[in-house]
Amino acid sequence: MSKTFKEAEVATHKSADSLWIIVDGGVYDVTKFADEHPGGKKILQRVGGKDASTPFWKYHNASILKKYQPKLQIGWIEGKAPAAPAPKAEVKKAAPKTVAATTSSQPKEALETFGDLIPYGDPNWYQGYVSPYYNETHAALRQEVREWMEEKVEPYLSEWEKAKFVPTEIYKEMGTRGYLPGLLGVGFPESLTPYTVKSVDPKQWDLFHEFVVTDEISRSGSGGFVWNVIGGFGIGLPPVVKFGKKELVERIVPGIIQGDKRICLAITEPDAGSDVANLTCVAKKSECGKFYIVNGEKKWITNGIWADYFTVAVRTGGPGMNGVSVLLIERGPGVTTREMDCQGVHGSGTTYITFEDVKVPVENLIGKENAGFKVIMTNFNHERIGIIIQCTRFARVCYEEAMKYAHKRKTFGKPLIEHPVIRLKLAHMARQIEATHAWLENILYQCSAMGEHEAMLRLGGAIAGLKAQATTTFEFCAREAVQIFGGIGYTKGGQGSKVERLYRDVRGYAIPGGSEEIMLDLSIRQGLRVHQVLGMKL
Ligand code: HEM
């Protein structure tokens, strides 16, 4: 794309049979594209031969330019081509440290600023504020994931959401770029994959790196995309890694974390959701004692439709929580999956599963027989933290998109941002996002400092409360952003596409993983229990 043109030359291409326009110094030949332009042919012809940057940005997002650049751009106006990017600084490979050690010895200096610097549009450590939680490796990872998302994912999201699909190469890349192995809440499992993350030494990997990956992929503003790539993985695999037998882990985990195979978590049933202790999918030992025979149904199972493996809660004993076990079921005879049609999170493959006389080797038991409840409960903290990270970023995306649009769109003779009622909406969004984010960082820090068992007991209540805080914040921000966008936020595709999509995704976050009502109640019940042990005086 090194060809350059003078403005006078572009000006001669203003007819239907040779139509060029300039956007941000780039020269685009839209002669053939004009007929298929969703905004119409005439509107392009009116700016033929001219600099159309202002009207272009009025009607489109950056991802449109990125997507069409390879097809339509023919060069640059003289002197306007962007300078080649400066070579990137090498990431410092510091000696391995725990988060606690890293933070206590960290110089109290802000990291370089990153992103669009819209106030509250990114977490404050992106915007020149000091934070005890992050160092250069987190910053390098943030840049690495964002570049990948902007190039490979963002321009195609509306298409994928419509088709309820994400190309399998993207999941594969999540494996080869080392993001999948880093998202298990167990550090970086180097022994199970040859792939590592380019910008972070595996020995330095901590929960805040995990946070950065999930946060940056959630900038997609698509629950369907995020759940497609990590929805089943992030909740289905950790129980296998933590409680599975060595032989099973070595046999199946490498294929999954390298992005070749898929796994999902199947707990919810048509008649048992947050009420896990009541599940009825049954697993009976065969007479030879070598197998469990599984019969039952599972519903709303993310990624189930493509899954090779199912981490399944089954009843092996009597009623209640002490009769529940967890089995790793492999796709095969007796396993049937059907995709469900839901309000949002399109592309995440929400599935109805039936197990009919499925033979499962006893070696596939995860944890101990009838002690599956512990496996499920241990998993909940990690699952809920994933949901909290995603919702907090989704709320931020709603805010960021609304703030940008409020500067473009004029009503009653002035930009929306100059109307106090719009600033009030943005302020209420920002204060909730920042509060949620700060609580989340604090909880992650506590998780890093405690062992998993202690974290499960002591933080379960707070994490439940934070999940409700994150989903209500997300719901509020999605609502307010759609109001600011007006009709454009009610329309699929185009500038309001992220907020329109997120508005439909809200319930997909507020209900599963523990509904808001159950989370709020649990936060108080569990908090009282823990503080009784700590010596609470009432
Ligand atoms: C490189 C040149 C351009 C490309 C690739 C392009 C592409 C698109 C696409 C894909 C859409 C569908 C909506 C979306 O997904 O955002 C759209 C809509 C639209 N475009 Fe363009 N466009 C270009 C230039 C322009 C220019 C220069 C103008 C105005 C002078 C314009 C005005 C519009 C309008 C009014 C809409 C409809 C917006 C709506 O539905 O609210 N486009 N364009």
Automatic annotation (TrEMBL):
Sequence ranges assigned to domain Cytochrome b5 heme-binding in this UniProt record: 2-78
GO molecular function: acyl-CoA dehydrogenase activity; flavin adenine dinucleotide binding
Source organism, top-level taxon: Eukaryota
GO terms for cellular component: cytoplasm
GO BP: fatty acid beta-oxidation using acyl-CoA dehydrogenase
UniProtKB keywords: FAD, Flavoprotein, Oxidoreductase
Tagged with keyword Oxidoreductase: yes
Cofactor field: FAD
Pfam families listed in its UniProt record: Acyl-CoA_dh_1 (PF00441), Acyl-CoA_dh_M (PF02770), Acyl-CoA_dh_N (PF02771), Cyt-b5 (PF00173)
SMART domains: Cyt-b5
InterPro entries in the record: Acyl-CoA_dehydrogenase, Acyl-CoA_Oxase/DH_mid-dom, Acyl-CoA_Oxase/DH_mid-dom_sf, AcylCo_DH-like_C, AcylCo_DH/oxidase_C, AcylCoA_DH/ox_N, AcylCoA_DH/ox_N_sf, AcylCoA_DH/oxidase_NM_dom_sf
Family: Belongs to the acyl-CoA dehydrogenase family.
Annotated protein name in UniProt: Acyl-CoA dehydrogenase NM domain-like protein
UniProt source species: Ascodesmis nigricans
